[in-house]
Sequence to fold (407 residues):
Amino acid sequence: MNKILFLCSDTDVFYQRYRFFFIVREIAEVFPVTVVTSENEAVFSPLWEAIDALSPKNLCYFVAKKGIISYESKWNALVERLRIDMQDVKLSGLDIPFWKVSLLDDFVGSLETEFHQIPPDFHSFSAVITPFFSVSRPPSFGGYYQFQLYKTAKENGIPVIGVEIQTIDKRYYYQNLFYDYYVVKRESSYGFLRELGIPENRIFLLKKKYSSILSDSDYTFAANLKFLFDDLSLIPEVFSGKPVITLIHRLSERFAFRELLRALSQLSADFIPVVVVHPDIHTISLREKEVLQQAYQDEIVKLPGRELLILETPRNNLSFLTLFSDVIVSVSPHVVSDYPFKSDSIFVFNPLYRHSVQCYPEIKNFFTEGKALISNIEKRISSDQSRCSFRSVISKIVKNHKPRERK
Fold:
């Protein structure tokens, strides 16, 4: 069975707070995935603990321990040799030797005295996934280690897939030429790589929802990991590749929610309907989930699959829901009003606000008629038709990859 190796960079974890692990969960629905981390307990211990405790399907980790590099020449000798070789090279327009600003600032600081272990079963992997290297961020384990992985992968005929977790650095280009395939979240990044001469069949543009997935999070490691490894395990259909339309229910807006279900039954595109409820919300005798299961059956049977997938979680705010949703529809404008990121994928629908929609000018997509809502949802879904899910990209690469000949 095909196995995937996924490099987890210290820097990306710091900025993302493991939010990008959604894409790891997504491919783990199909392939066994080994996540490679450094020995940095302060950064990675929540991840190790989560995987140990929850034992998620197809997911394990490998801690790359440090070893010592034995240079044939001492550092000073290496620097002196390069200084001699570059002594005639000067900065354009200036009478400054290039080695003075290159060797001392970059080369010496980049010489490593340590290496990190490669997984002993490396030859058994079908692909290596690594974040794009960035020269603008401080050197870290992921920055150095990915080139160890790249060299070993080349020797074993294994494709290396670069992923745009942090937005690709477009001021430089040479660090972007090492990968066999490129998975990007922005059209501008796709265009930049094409300008560098990367063939279009080696670049994959992700669906728009991944811009939210591959973004910073204000939540703790534990909260994100619990949601990704535990809560979403209850609804594996969200990783199917079909558009996911997430509905935010409110007990006080039951009429609007019924109208929303009625409108969605007219949607021409096939989709996965997920409705989010809070476990602590209830009427006098029924929890919100029980109301949902009993009050709307006549409308639910008209939806694709004739069911609603119910996600009962206290983390039912937009920051979490954008992790897996192609479209989010709330029947309450108050859920959306205070959310700072006004995405084109977030809608409000409530026919009862027909005469007061102007009271919410901060909400970009506020609809009071079903036809207008459905038209805009269909536009949103159709705009993604030429883009890829992360799982489909990896599946295609694993199936079709042929090692490139070295020039």
About this structure: The first strand starts at residue 4 and ends at 7. The chain has a mean pLDDT of 86. The longest helix spans residues 141-156.
